[in-house]
Amino acid sequence: MSRSTNENIPLSAFNRPPTDRILSSQSVCVDSPQITTCGHFGIGQDMCQLCHRRAKLNIPVYLHEEKRIREAEEDKLLNHYRDTKDMEEQRKQDAALKAAREERQKVAAFNLGIAEATRAKKLDRTQELEIPRSIIFRKRLRTPPTYIKQHDFARQIEAQIKTRQEERYAEKSDKDFSERLEQIQLAETLAQERENYLKNKRHQQGQLKNALFNQIQSKPIEPMDQPDKTLFGLNDMSTEELQRRRLHAIDIVRQEKELIEQRQRQQLLKQIHEQEYELKALDIMKDDLISERRERHRRDLKIRKNLESDWINAMDGKHKRDEDERMHLKAPQGILVHEQCDQYRRCAQCQRNLDNYGKTNVWSDTRYIPGARIMV
User: Fold this and answer.
1) Is 368 helix (H, G, I), strand (E, B) or coil?
2) Number of helices (H), then strands (E), in the chain
3) How far apart are CA 283 and CA 288, in angstroms?
4) CA-atom Rg of the chain in angstroms
């Protein structure tokens, strides 16, 4: 009788009338809340009605501080244990090293004693007791003649000499080829410089010719004949005037020479700048080619890795599908056990049906029927 009463306690305990707070909240919300399959409000909680109400009545207790203190004590104890083990291991190693050192000292002393005893025994040994060091064999084979070994040595020496001569000949031919190539390159460089020199010389001659032609074209007009005047001796120069004109001509020649040298220097600097620009352009092109080749290699490697991973994933998926298909074929109805269990949802806490309202799933041996004096 008491057992049946205890079974009905959860139903009577949780079937309480709603309070004013619940009624006020219901009056505020116009839309009715969604109800889950377990029969209580709130979506996403896979618990039955009984576990849900018990969870709402529970008061959470946080043990973070106690857990932190306990973990700190455990870490301290673990560190102390590790230090103790390290000290014991160090003492064991020191004892082993000391024992090995003592053993080596004993072995060295023993070897020294044996060596001294052997040396003393050799010194004390008399001449009569010495064992003869030469032994005569009665049936000893004849020693082969020396010319056989000499022939072998001669062949080996000839082979070595031939190899060395071939190496020297190859080295000499390579050296001659490199020297000849350098001479050809030097001759080409000199020919190119000679050609450039002649070209510049012809260009300068043409410029001087044009300048002379322009001077001839722009020659001043001769003075008109004037009678009754002295014509001879008007342009006679004194020594000072001739010296002045000579210095002026020398100055003009020097200026022209400096101008020519300056133009040559400018031309040489221009060629040097062009060569430097070409070298920089070649270096940039080389770096671009190297970076492009590196990027192409990295891209090919990445594509290969992706293809390998895709192939492995596809192979694993195919194996898994084949395994599932074989298991489905072996199943009685074509459905596996875990697939059949997925159709029936359970409470995440008590593992009962979601429609549980406090009834037990264990049958009692005796059951009391109300209104009758019968025990089943």
Assistant:
1) strand
2) 8, 0
3) 9
4) 59
Rounded Cα distance between 124 and 242, Å, is 122
Query: How many C-beta neighbours within 10 Å does residue 49 have?
Result: 19
Q: Which residue type is seen at 356?
A: N
Question: Which residues share a beta bridge with 41?
Answer: 35
**What residues contact residue 200 under an 8 Å CB cut-off, 6+ apart?**
264, 267
Cα atoms in the 13 Å half-sphere on the side-chain side of 342: 5
- What digits encode the pLDDT tens for the residues 138-197? 777 778 888 888 999 999 999 999 999 999 999 999 999 999 999 999 999 999 999 999
Rounded mean pLDDT of 315-339? Answer: 83
Q: What amino acid is encoded at 347 in this protein?
A: C
Distance CA 237, CA 248 (A): 15
In terms of Cα–Cα distance, which of 298, 295, 317 is closest to 306? Answer: 298
- pTM of structure: 0.26
CA–CA distance from 164 to each of 152, 161, 167, 168, 172 (Å)? 18, 5, 5, 6, 12
Confidence at residue 40, expressed as pLDDT on a 0 to 100 scale: 52
Q: How far is CA 23 from the centre of its chain?
A: 68
Residue 327 has pLDDT above 90, yes or no: no
End-to-end CA distance of the chain: 11
Q: Which residues pair with 353 in a beta bridge?
A: 346
Residue 83 identity (one-letter amino acid) = D
Owner of token pair 């909680």? 45
| DSSP symbol at 372 | S
- Quote the distance between the C-alpha of residue 352 and its chain's center: 55
Instruction: Tell me how far apart the alpha carbons of residues 370 and 376 are, in angstroms, rounded to a whole number.
Output: 11
pLDDT of residue 200: 94
Model pLDDT, residue 195: 94
From residue 243, alpha-carbon distances to 79, 238, 246, 248, 278 in Å are 109, 9, 5, 8, 52
Closest by CA to 353, choosing from 60, 37, 8, 139, is 37
| Integer CA distances (angstroms), 169 to 138, 213, 253, 306, in order | 55, 65, 59, 55
What is the DSSP code (8-state) at residue 142? P
Cα–Cα nearest to 263, from 193, 200, 196:
200
